[in-house]
């Protein structure tokens, strides 16, 4: 190779390296505020007193299994149907109807992914509202929504009765969204979050006196509604250097007449039996069913184990969530609901399939509606998801 060719080669490598550094710098600058903030002072001290805090981060009782080589293989064989090719049918949220309490005392409105409006015994709760165009710290990259947000913060503030609590399960971008929270920061509401997550909210302008941080099994009260922070098997982190420095959780909403369970993100683990024993039975269980893979079987339930989880927590009606909005895994986009329906039917579990935006009361669940297209998907036998370190079998 001539000296001139070597010189050209070095310049090309340098140019590529410079472009990479510029891209990294642009990402860091663009997403700096959305990355959130570390916990300090009294907040950090309280985290360190948690029995789940060890060696500078939170830990699961059963560690998460990850198979890097299997991840690469499954990535190479990802479904060609990971995203919809046509518009997803959604319903406009019936804000006029939601202006009056549900006759039964319990009503749910699925807003997509893990975002739910839960009306329970005279209280209104929003779970994991993530209404920005992308599940990302930046506007130019990251998973895009498949349909626009069905509620907006002005719509909620102007057309709905007051939201009593905004409940966050953990700080991953598809559950804790900077744009949404910053638009809500002046709401007269309570933000209920797991330990440490309040540092993000305070950094984004939410008043400290409106932030309630809970450890697993701790609770808070909104008038006569009890919100219990329940254990989950998952992780946290918004950058490469803050993994598991904030807690993750599910929640139980316990009213005078009704009980509802919200799983957040979780893998299957034995403590779900304890959740059901201590806090159940639940009139309704909102269970995550999507974004799973055999290479990381403990991060998410998967459809069949979602039905197991529903039975373990003693749910009566299962509401699938955490699907149908983002491309975050390698399976087909309709596969989670197809497999969840098959597993629920085998187990004799009542399950609903609301369209995004649909409101319903669990006492009179809507008829099953297959509103998604019929596209190829893998069965549980073809692509099983089995959690590790399950010491106890799933039980009803």
From TrEMBL:
<feature type="domain" description="Metallo-beta-lactamase">
    <location>
        <begin position="123"/>
        <end position="323"/>
    </location>
</feature>
<protein>
    <submittedName>
        <fullName>MBL fold metallo-hydrolase</fullName>
    </submittedName>
</protein>
<feature type="transmembrane region" description="Helical">
    <location>
        <begin position="12"/>
        <end position="35"/>
    </location>
</feature>
<keyword id="KW-0812">Transmembrane</keyword>
<dbReference type="InterPro" id="IPR036866">
    <property type="entry name" value="RibonucZ/Hydroxyglut_hydro"/>
</dbReference>
<dbReference type="Pfam" id="PF12706">
    <property type="entry name" value="Lactamase_B_2"/>
</dbReference>
<keyword id="KW-1133">Transmembrane helix</keyword>
<keyword id="KW-0472">Membrane</keyword>
<dbReference type="InterPro" id="IPR001279">
    <property type="entry name" value="Metallo-B-lactamas"/>
</dbReference>
